[in-house]
Structures are given as C-alpha cells and as structure tokens.
C-alpha cells in the first residue's frame, strides 16, 4: 500500500486522455444537440402526431425484436452452458457472426428474403443481430448456477419444465432481463436495417433524424427527435444497470458446473438451439446466393463506379477507404481502451473510492448508449469550431468509429486484467520490479489473447460501421458500407448486383475475423 498515492495519480493520468477524448468527441456534440433540440421549434415537433407515430413504431419494433431474440437465445444459452456436445464450438461462433456483421449486410440479406422489406423483416433482422447478446450473457450465468437445487426439485417429483420455471428461471431472470434491456437498446437505435428494409414507408427515430438532417436540412427538428431518443436510451440504460447489479449480487458457484450430455426432454431444447443456428444461417446463405444470381457480373463491377457512374469512387477504392479508416480507428481505440483499462484496474488496486471507479467506467461506456447517427449529427453542428474545421477532414470518420469501438475494447480487456492474480504481481514487485515492469512481465502476457481478440473485434466493427460514417464520409472517400447504402438507393440492375457482391465480400471478412477470435476462446458478448 506504500505505492497507493503514486498509483492513484498514475491511474488518473492514464484516464485523462480517454476522458478528454470523450469530452470533445462525445459530450460536446451531444450537449450541442440538446441545446439545439430545446430551440423554438421543439414544441411543434414534439406535439406532432407523426412524431409520436415514429416513437410508437420505434418502441414497438424494438420490443417485438427483443422478444424474438430472447426466445431464440435461451435454447442456445442452455446448449452452451449445460451440454458437452461435439459442435458447440461451431454454435458459439455461429451466433457471434450476426452480432458483428455490418448493418448494411444484414439489411441486404433480409431484402433478399423479403423483397422490399417491411415491419416483419425489420423485426427479424434486428432479432438476428442480437441472439448472441442473449445467448452469451445468459449462458455465462447459467454455467455457474448450482445444479443441486434443480436435482432436489426433480427428486421431489417436479417435472423438468416445472423445475425450470420455479427453480432455474428465477436465478436466470436478472441475466435475461439485463440482456433484454441491451437488446432493446440496440433495436431501438437500429439504423442501417430500418433504412434498407423500411422502404421509405416505415421509419424510426434513428432514420428520421438522418433523413431530416441529410435530405430536409431540418436541424431543429432532427435535434428535437434526438432529445426523445436520448431520453429513451437513458431510461433503458438505468433499467439495465439496475438489473445488472441484481445479477452480480447473486450467490453462485465459484466455477462453472461440468457440462454433460443432454438427457430426456433436454434433447428437445438442444434441437431448438440447432434450429436457431440454422435459421441464423439462412439470411447469410440467401445473400451469397443473391450475389451470384447474375453470375459474376456484380463482382466484376467492383472495379467500376456502378450504373452510369452512380458513385464517385470505384468499389475497390471504397474497400481501401474502409480498410484505412478501420485501421486508424482501431489503433486509436486500442490506445484509448488500454489506457482506460490500466486506469480502472490500477484504481481498483489502490484505495480509490468505488464510486470514483464506477463513475469513470460508466462515463467510458456512454457511447454505447447513444446512437452513432446522433453522434454523427452532433459532429456536423459542433466541430467547425475546432482549428481546421474537422468536418472536412478525412480523420473525422476514424474518430467517430473509434468512439464506437473503444467501449468494445474496454469490455474485452478489462475483465481479464481484473482477474490477474495479485500474488503474481506482488511476487514480481518483491523481486524489485518497478510498476511498469510488473505490467510488462505479468499483466501483458496474461492478457495477450484478449488484446488480440479486442483488436480483431474492434477492426470488424469499425470496418462495417454505417451510422455515423453515413453522415460524415465525403463522396470521394466513401467507405464500402456507405457505398452499398448508396447503391441500394439508386436505380439500375448493375447497382443492385454490385451492392450484393460488395456485401458478400464484407461479410466474408467479418466471418473470418469471428472464427479467428473464437479459436482464441475469448468472448466479448456478455461483458457489457
């Protein structure tokens, strides 16, 4: 404890850069939107029946998609937590693939199944994204639930179904509720899926903010809608935090129960889990098939600019733009994320107040709770005040993407660093190692696999980011997701073929990243 004060000072210094970045590139734009949204026109927007119809559809489709995701995720959670079957590794990777797929890929995949889309397509596409959130979060808790209470209920004559309802489900309810809150948040702020599947007839607050800004130039109206969205997001975050605290307060076994082969009626649950996995593969297979519907014409067109020069960049130039932006965003997110983790872990090892640690941790997670579209809109109305007007800088897209993926880096690395045995660090310090060397010799090797996983997932998410990038990318520096969105909105069969071929390539890169990370056996979903 002799190094408590220097450790506290160093931790706060490490947190200064991430918190400063958050203040400039998140808090400032959001506050500007709040101020603009409280302008003279806010009353007319908030009293409009069209506005409340948007709110109703936004919340309704989010609630329906959450119900579907929970129903589909629970059998998969049982399979991963309680069984030891060949192929569980494939299931684990398969449910993760939709979670990190770019929204434009999923939107086009469901268009290939449902034609012009509609409410059902939107609900199923949002549920498709979020099955992994439920499956991984609930399975993480389920694997630590003591079986003895279930065995006692069975020995007293309770059926498997009654045992689940009255013994297992109450224990799992906090994890189910917490994951449902996160899924609802993701679905309520869904952008690319609704934009591609709404067909101009169905819109949410998220897409309406985008349309009012880009097409109607109604900044006051867009800001007023952003206020409504922020209010709903804050409410969901508060509910999720309460449920998460209840989940962590449960008394569980210190280690996971040994998985075994299913018995009796459990095989029905296993069958349902495999049915969910097959259902998740259907949109992906449909997308690939659609991309080859006209042979290789779509893939050949990647070297051009679409039907009658619809784009200002070729497909390959868009690919390079995506790779450059994702690389820059990932490098920045790793710097910010690692510094944040070092700060939080160091604070936990000193005499810092738990409230200080929780406040910093919550602040760093705030970008998860505000849509990328809202942040991108905020950049347009604030960043001209900085030297050089960042709104026209090619750095703006990587900055926005880094804001989105930094929480992912933190949530992947932080649990591993917090679990490092303090005895190893004390032994190194006893042998004369300075604090920086203790980190290098103890913490870094033990967290190396998680660091690789964080890098890969951050890169995959940045590569497919569409919400903020659609606001900020200039036509000559458009990324591949932005190009796909523009191709879909423009006429011409060649544009359609090019969009599906580009989506397939983007999907293959994402799948390769997920499979590689799964081989490291490092999870990300479930730590949020």
TrEMBL record:
It is a multi-pass membrane protein. Coiled coil: none annotated. It comes from the Bacteria. The chain crosses the membrane at residues 56-81, 93-114, 120-142, 163-196, 216-243, 264-289, 329-348, 360-383, 395-417, 450-473, 498-517. It is found in: Cell inner membrane; Cell membrane. GO terms for cellular component: plasma membrane. GO terms for biological process: transmembrane transport. Keywords: Cell inner membrane, Cell membrane, Membrane, Transmembrane, Transmembrane helix, Transport. Residues 55-238, 319-517 form the ABC transmembrane type-1 domain. Belongs to the binding-protein-dependent transport system permease family. This is Thiamine transport system permease protein.
């Amino acid at each position: 404890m002799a190094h408590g004060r220097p450790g506290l000072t160093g931790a706060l210094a490490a947190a200064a850069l991430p918190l400063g970045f958050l203040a400039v590139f998140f808090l400032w734009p959001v506050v500007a939107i709040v101020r603009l949204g409280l302008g003279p026109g806010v009353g007319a927007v908030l009293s409009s029946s069209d506005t409340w119809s948007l709110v109703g559809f936004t919340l309704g489709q989010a609630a329906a998609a959450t119900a579907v995701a929970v129903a589909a995720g629970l059998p998969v959670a049982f399979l991963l937590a309680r069984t030891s079957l060949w192929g569980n590794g494939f299931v684990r990777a398969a449910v993760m693939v939709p979670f990190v797929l770019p929204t434009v890929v999923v939107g086009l995949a469901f268009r290939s199944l449902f034609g012009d889309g509609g409410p059902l397509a939107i609900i199923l596409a949002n549920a498709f994204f979020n099955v992994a959130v439920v499956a991984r979060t609930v399975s993480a808790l389920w694997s630590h639930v003591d079986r003895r209470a279930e065995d006692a209920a069975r020995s007293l004559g309770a059926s498997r179904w009654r045992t689940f309802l009255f013994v297992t489900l109450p224990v799992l309810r906090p994890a189910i509720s917490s994951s449902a809150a996160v899924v609802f948040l993701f679905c309520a702020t869904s952008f690319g899926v609704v934009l591609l599947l709404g067909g101009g007839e169905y819109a949410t607050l998220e897409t309406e903010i985008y349309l009012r800004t880009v097409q109607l130039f109604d900044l006051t109206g867009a800001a007023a809608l952003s206020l409504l969205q922020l209010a709903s997001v804050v409410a969901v975050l508060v509910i999720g935090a309460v449920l998460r605290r209840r989940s962590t307060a449960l008394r569980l076994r210190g280690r996971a129960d040994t998985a075994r082969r299913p018995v009796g009626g459990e095989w029905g649950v296993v069958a349902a889990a495999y049915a969910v996995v097959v259902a998740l593969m259907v949109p992906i297979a449909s997308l690939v098939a659609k991309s080859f519907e006209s042979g290789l014409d779509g893939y050949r067109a990647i070297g051009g600019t679409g039907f009658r020069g619809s784009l200002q960049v070729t497909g390959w130039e868009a690919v390079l733009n995506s790779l450059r932006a994702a690389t820059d965003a990932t490098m920045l997110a790793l710097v910010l994320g690692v510094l944040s983790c070092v700060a939080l872990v160091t604070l936990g090892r000193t005499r810092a107040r738990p409230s200080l640690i929780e406040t910093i941790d919550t602040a760093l997670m705030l970008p998860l709770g505000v849509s990328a579209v809202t942040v991108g809109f905020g950049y347009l109305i604030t960043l001209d005040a900085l030297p050089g007007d960042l709104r026209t800088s090619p750095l703006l897209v990587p900055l926005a993407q880094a804001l989105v993926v930094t929480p992912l880096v933190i949530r992947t690395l932080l649990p591993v660093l917090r679990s490092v045995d303090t005895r190893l660090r004390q032994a190194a310090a006893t042998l004369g190692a300075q604090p920086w060397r203790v980190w290098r010799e103890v913490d870094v090797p033990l967290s190396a696999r998680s660091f690789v996983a964080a890098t890969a997932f951050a890169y995959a998410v940045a590569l497919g980011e569409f919400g903020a990038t659609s606001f900020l990318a200039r036509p000559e520096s458009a990324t591949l997701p932005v190009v796909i969105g523009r191709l879909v909105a423009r006429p011409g069969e060649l544009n359609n073929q090019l969009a599906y071929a580009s989506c397939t390539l983007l999907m293959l890169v994402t799948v390769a990243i997920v499979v590689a990370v799964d081989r490291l056996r490092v999870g990300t979903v479930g730590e949020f």
